[in-house]
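Table S2 (continued). Query chain:
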Amino acid sequence: MAVSQATAALTLHGSDFTSRDEQGKSIRLSPVGAATVTATPGHPATITLKGTFQAGAAQLTWLNAGKVIAIRDFDIELD
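Corresponding output:
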């Protein structure tokens, strides 16, 4: 996930993200590289997470202080 912040610093921790498959099963996410990144005005930051997914629908949830900030739904196709 790439972030940029125009007005203040924004720190992302790998532990801020959770993922579930279409049946509600948790998908373990692990950071690739830095587990924490900070975007500051004019300096975007990217945090990379990996998980093992099966074909089907899944979602990625971003939480901050225990509150949902965003949910991204996506489909995994294995052709």
